[in-house]
Write a structure and sequence with these properties.
alpha/beta, Nucleotidyltransferase, domain 5, five-stranded mixed beta sheet, two-stranded antiparallel sheet, 16 helices
Length: 401
């Protein structure tokens, strides 16, 4: 048996080839992430008439080119969790670190845990697309939140009090569009109450909002009483309008990504089943499936729970056994976020979902005195167990047809 350790870097990797007992067959060497270089590596590995297994550490996206290429060329590749590999490699007392030494340590890991290595499989194209879209969706949401905070801070300086009269609600950016048109209280005052009221009603009608003269008069009265701390200059106009533009464009991008996710996820057999689960709607279903991925890659529901990072590892020493333990949080943080949103959606619609087992479980935990967040995490734990069972059944039925 031959273990090939690969220390992955951006654009290149260092390869070490080792046999049991620490025998190094080939001195560590570098390969670039190109078809020519990786094809040469495959040919070199095929020259060994023994069982060859390639081991490398999960390093974000850097390891994907070499992993996918080797897997597609029928080379056994195992991607090891970065934390586990780090703990194995940190046993060296001298803590010397070079790419060549790291490659040798990774090869030694392959020898040590030979029987535990699992082969990497190229993910289904549909799930890969969903994962990329999901990551971009989270990026858009992050930018959207920052843009809203930035706009809120600016409005406190150019239109103090306007946020109590107009608000941006989910899917409705009335305040932002209003600011895009007027951007400073001085502009409203310069128009006069009568002209502003007329202009506001025309704008509201065009945007599809209610033509409310009382609202316009209330805004004008607020403009008269307010004390803007930033004067109405060309610089102020630029900053406010650009902030609004970024916010609205980001929201447009978020919706476009979610629409694409929905179109992709509808091609999967589990979509209709997930959509029927309590708390899951047309927004959360694509995000859940995108973060969980292909359910067939998990051995059981405990593997899925551990992947989400909401498992509670036991702790026992001697006669002591810990009873109050925190979740590991070593898993997919995006899945935990979507899961918590799902539980909040379940609570929000509890009147319509009284018979839902997850909702009943959360309510029982709350009745036992559990804190709100702990009850929600416990509910998500149960939700994933049900998810695993139902989606696994879908694929089992598909396989028998």
């Amino acid at each position: 048996m031959i273990s090939v350790g690969i220390d992955v870097s951006k654009g290149k990797s260092t390869v070490a080839i080792m046999k049991p007992g620490g025998e190094v067959l080939v001195a560590p060497f570098d390969v670039t992430h190109t078809q020519e270089s990786l094809s040469s590596l495959v040919d070199r590995l095929e020259e060994f008439n023994e069982d060859v297994r390639v081991v490398l550490e999960a390093t974000g996206n850097y390891h994907l080119p070499i992993t996918v290429f080797l897997a597609e060329n029928r080379v056994f590749v195992s991607v090891v969790n970065a934390l586990r590999m780090n703990k194995f490699c940190s046993q060296d007392l001298r803590r010397a670190k070079t790419d060549k030494k790291d490659a040798l340590k990774i090869a030694a890991y392959g020898i040590t845990y030979w029987g535990e290595l699992t082969a990497y499989s190229v993910a289904d194209e549909t799930y890969s697309q969903l994962r990329i879209l999901s990551r971009q969706y989270h990026q858009m949401v992050s930018i959207l939140v920052k843009s809203k905070v930035n706009l809120s801070n600016l409005l406190d300086q150019v239109m103090p009090g306007i946020k109590t009269l107009l608000v941006d609600s989910k899917g409705n950016y009335k305040l932002s569009k209003f600011v895009e048109r007027y951007y400073h209280f001085d502009n409203i005052l310069d128009m006069g109450e009568r002209r502003f009221t007329s202009d506001y009603c025309k704008w509201a009608k065009k945007q599809g909002y209610l033509m409310n003269e009382r609202k316009a008069k209330a805004i004008f009265a607020s403009a008269q009483e307010a004390i803007p701390v930033i004067s109405n200059t060309s610089a102020t106009k630029l900053v406010v309008l650009e902030t609004v533009r970024v916010l609205l464009e980001t929201e447009k991008s978020r919706k476009a990504i979610l629409t694409q996710m929905t179109e992709v996820v509808k091609t999967l057999p589990e979509y209709s089943v997930v959509l029927e689960m309590g708390g899951v709607g047309e927004v959360l279903a694509p995000r859940l499936i995108a973060e969980i991925g292909d359910i067939r890659r998990f051995n059981n529901h405990n593997s899925l729970i551990a992947y989400a990072g909401i498992d509670v590892p036991p702790y026992q020493s001697g006669k002591f056994t810990a009873t109050e333990r925190h979740i590991s949080k070593r898993g997919n943080k995006y899945l935990r976020k979507v899961g918590y949103e799902t539980m909040e959606s379940l609570i929000m619609h509890q009147r319509l979902l009284e018979d839902d087992p997850v909702l009943q479980f959360i309510q029982r935990k709350r009745g036992e005195g559990k804190a709100y967040k702990k009850a929600m995490i416990a509910g998500f734990n149960k939700f994933l167990r049900i998810y695993y069972a139902r989606v696994s059944e879908v694929y089992a039925n598909t396989a028998t047809q």
